[in-house]
Write a structure and sequence with these properties.
The protein is of the alpha/beta class. It has a 5-stranded parallel β-sheet. The chain is built from 8 helices and 5 strands. It has helices spanning 2-14, 42-45, 49-56, 69-75, 89-95, 98-105, 124-135, 147-154, and strands spanning 46-47, 62-65, 81-83, 115-119, 140-144. The protein starts with a helix and ends with a helix. Residues 57-156 form the Rhodanese domain. InterPro entries: Rhodanese-like_dom, Rhodanese-like_dom_sf. It holds the Pfam family Rhodanese.
Length: 156
């Protein structure tokens, strides 16, 4: 506080000397951040082929393909999955109403506790979709790391 008072007094004395001049004021803000990390097992955030295969039989798990529609048409999709391209995930899970989601995707919009599995071609975009969902408050979201490449390799 003493430092601020002395600065104010000094500024008051010099005000008459700078009345008709442009004065540039530089402010410096020092912020101290503490980053906390929580150890999370990779198993809690990812799924493998067998878990996804079981999920295709479970109507309570929403399996979301985040590839572009052209990729889905060209390569195929995991049974019972829906296609929400990565660029639309935040809108679909965040802004869309339950009714709009149901109308567009023919599946109920998941609750924040509902299980969602994301996949793409190799697991990268699905990881981004997973992070988007977590940022929106979804708590039970998983990434199929092998994604379509792994799934398709098991079909032959």
């Amino acid at each position: 506080m003493q430092c601020i008072k002395s600065t104010v007094r000094q500024c008051t004395r010099n005000i008459s000397a700078i009345q008709n001049r442009t004065v540039y004021v530089k402010q410096t803000l020092t912020v101290s951040l503490r980053l906390y990390s929580e150890k999370v097992k990779v198993d809690e955030l990812t799924v493998d082929y067998h878990q996804v295969k079981n999920a295709t039989l479970n109507g309570n798990v929403l399996i979301v393909d985040v590839r572009e529609p052209e990729e889905v048409k060209e390569h195929g999709k995991i049974p019972n999955s829906i296609n929400i391209p990565l660029g639309n995930v935040s809108t679909a899970l965040g802004i869309m109403t339950d009714k709009e989601f149901q109308s567009l995707y023919k599946r109920p919009k998941p609750t924040e506790e509902g299980e969602i599995i994301f996949y793409c071609m190799i697991g990268k975009r699905s990881g981004m979709a997973q992070q988007n969902a977590i940022n929106l408050g979804y708590k039970n979201v998983k990434n199929y790391l092998g994604s379509w490449t792994d799934w398709a390799s098991k079909l032959h």
